[in-house]
């Protein structure tokens, strides 16, 4: 049985035992087991393009949702054990996720969230800093990002998770981090990004993930670290699981590929103890 099935295929069949009352002349009572059909886990995915699955395969969905994203993979691998609704949308910030929380209810049993990167505009920073003629703009964007990381982001992550847990009080809530964009490598063929900038980008994402983990702890939800799974598969590696500069034109750059979703995000989330209590 695949690991997602083992985690999600909750056997909620209830056996009702009906005892046949014996009379003085009747045969002994007989127990009859009545199997109730399993009820699928009610699952809602919230977040940005990483949760939507954007970049993993072509899509015409206005929010960039694909069947190769980890929410769809979780549901597919559960073999009917999960009923999934993906409310995630490319470009979503923490404020947008609060609006997405309207998809939740007391009947929601599982929620996954991937959000926070768009609040920092990490991709905009990298795009600016790649241009060697935009040094001043690169420095200004970096300073603005630092301010958001320190002050605004922790507050906004807390508001987002409070809204999610309030809207789905009975749900198991899981929030993920992000993979580091660049593998540790002196050489980076095909990606004209200076080593200094690659290091800086990884540091930013590390701090972003730390802020997400801290917010998860404050709100008593589970944090899933995807950095280890992607450790040898960032850009500059031999087998990257992130879209490289070929994705600049259609905004797919730095998004997980289908392999990144299936072998980076899916195992990390499926192995996070989703059926445990926080």
UniProtKB/TrEMBL annotation:
Q: Give the range the annotation lists for the signal sequence.
A: 1-26
Q: Which UniProt keywords apply?
A: Hydrolase, Signal
Entry EC no(s): 3.1.-.-
The record's annotation in CDD domains points to:
SEST_like
Q: What is this protein called?
A: SGNH/GDSL hydrolase family protein
Q: Which domain of life is it from?
A: Bacteria
TM ranges:
none
InterPro entries recorded: SEST-like, SGNH_hydro, SGNH_hydro_sf
Domain SGNH hydrolase-type esterase, which positions? Answer: 45-263
Q: Which is one GO molecular function term here?
A: hydrolase activity
